[in-house]
Structures are given as C-alpha cells and as structure tokens.
Design a protein that fits this description.
about 325 residues; alpha+beta; three-stranded antiparallel β-sheet; binds zinc ion; single chain
Amino acid sequence: MAKGLLSNPIFQDETKAREWLEARIWKDGRVCPHCGVVGESTLMQGKTTRPGLYQCNVKECRQPFTVTVGTLYERSKIPLHKWLAATQLLMSSKKGMSALQIGRMLGISPKSSWFLMHRIRESLRGTDLEPMGGEGKVVEADETFIGGKERNKHKRLRNKKNIGGTGKEAVFSLVERGGRVRSQHVANVSAKTLRPILTAQIDAATSLMTDGAGQYRHMHKDFARHEMVNHEIDEYVRGDAHTNTIESYFAILKRGVIGTYHHVSEAHLKRYLAEFDYRYNERQSLDVDDAQRMEKSVKGIVGKRLTYRRTCREGQPVRA
Ligand SMILES: [Zn+2]
C-alpha cells in the first residue's frame, strides 16, 4: 500500500518537496513572514546558502526566510519530504498509523516520529466555529469514553458511577448527517458541561438526536426538535430518530485508538480527536481523495506554530 502512496517525487526529493510546498503556501506570491510584504524578495544564491532561502527587499526588514518560517515545520531537523510523506501516510490510513510504524517507514527515530505526528495532528485541528446543522438538518450528539474498561460495555451495562472516573476520558461528539463531525474532550458528561457546547455549536433550527441519557433531557428547549432514542429499553431506531451515525463514528475512533495507538494520554487526546475528525470530514464520500486530503491538510501548518508552543508549555490536559 505504502509504495504506491508515496510514489510522488515530493515524498523522496527535498527540492521537489520544497518547490511543492512553496507553490501551495505562496500561491498568491511570496510573503515575507517577518514584515508580511508580498512579492518583494530575492532568492539568495551564495555557494554556502541553503536552498530555498530568500531575502526580503523591504528596506526596514531585509530579513532572510524560507517557506517553513512561521509554520509547524519551522526549525525541524526532519527533511521536508519526510514531513509530507508522514502527512500522506496519516491521511490515507483509516485507523491512523503509529509513530513507530511511520518512523520505520521513513527512517526516523521513534522520538522524532512521535513529535512529528503530534505536529501533524495539531495542523489538523479545526478552526471552524460555524454552528452545525440548521433548518431541515439533523445533528446527532453522543459521548464515549477512551481509556478504561467501562467504555467497552454496552451503554445500559455501564456503571454510571464509573463514568468520568480514573483512567477514562470523556469525548463528546456532534455529527451532522451527511456532513461533518466535531469532537471534544470534556471534563464530564453532565448537562451543565454539554449544554453550552450544544447551544454554541449547533444551530437552533436543527433537529437534534440523542439517546435518553439524563444530560440530554431538557435539550428540546434549545432546538427546533429533539428526539431521544431510549437505549435502555432496546430502542435504537424510531423513524428518523437514531444515533447510528455518531455510533459508527465512535466505532472508527475506538478501533483506531485501541488498535493503532494503544495508549492515548489525556494531554494529547484532543490531537488524536483532531486526526480522526479530520479524516472523517474529508472522507471519500465527500469526493476528497487521499492526495487532495493531504494537500488540503498541509495548509493547516501555517500560523500554527505559536498555538502549538502554548499548548506544550501548559503541559496540562486542556479540556473543552
Ligand atoms: Zn520582510
């Protein structure tokens, strides 16, 4: 699988990789990342100058730069073509790929590979804050748990007291039928935590579908329509009322997290969620192929560097 996937020369040749990235990041002209002026720079061509180094011609600036300045790839010792190859691999595998596996394929150390994968995931984190749904649209909402045994049980067999307990992280996801998914790591699954997320992220004209869990009981006040299916009495579908779309998404997420990543730490959970959300949102049924998905994802590297550093410095789990 991997050979054909990485047949494009941009995944082997550093110059081709750089030129490919320049053509995408500087689509509308070469931007100096220091002063922001477009089209006022010259390629530096000394014998000892590294390839792809430009100098800004703006009098007050005169700074040198490359295409990776101000991006997630900045100051990385990993060659660009390997960044692109890793992104391509991650974008084309349904269940994700472990850092070890990608490291072996690309000839980089497990530690570098782990770091690289997290940066790529960071580039996939959505910045889309538009409300989901709308008139005539259906959004399903549900929660799941990552890490710990309760998550493996059928909903009605779960011990409610264990939910949100040690070793289990709650994930709350919204999916629009025929559309996109949005997942967040939440501190717990109480109405107090979930209601503000629902009202902020879903258009009030939407039909909302959930199960009958207590935290969803009063949501009909916030939405045009709210249907609950009662899993506790084995009711899973009632007309168009069901949560099958979100359950299918959770199945992919869990297979990936359990099968590929084995252990996902609380601090990094949001980045894994970004990875799975991204792949789902750019899936083939929305007419996006692997190459397009990869190309699109690379745009997310720009301007993300500072966000990533801030997240790192906190070193603490960030909860939505
Ligand atoms: Zn400049």
